[in-house]
Amino acid sequence: MKTATIFIRTVIGLLLVFVSIAYFFNIMPDLANSGDFKAFQLGLISSVYLMPMVKTIELLCGISYLSGQYVALSNLIVLPVSTNILFINFFLNPNGLPLALFVFLGNLFLIYIYWKNYKNLFKRN
């Protein structure tokens, strides 16, 4: 289980770091988009602050995953991001669904592995 945890944490960390660096340095070309997905992307870009904030969160959580520091905290911080990635790809861009599923399920797996760190959040006083 430890090997699987390190593997999933590392792969997701590399993905998050790569995607955020590619965004900030404009490394990857824009994908050919059409219809609702293109309208959604234009809305995200028009908001000015949202994409840089999400990519910063992805970068910080990716570095956390790669370094193995604050992983339990990063799991919770990146959960809404991975959920959004899954929903965007499910509803608007089915081509990216396999990678989105991997990130989301990997995030859930890491939350399960680090569950002992979250138990106190769900205790009644």
From TrEMBL:
Keywords: Membrane, Transmembrane, Transmembrane helix. The chain crosses the membrane at residues 7-27, 39-63, 70-91, 97-115. The keyword Membrane applies. This is DoxX protein. It comes from Flavobacterium granuli.
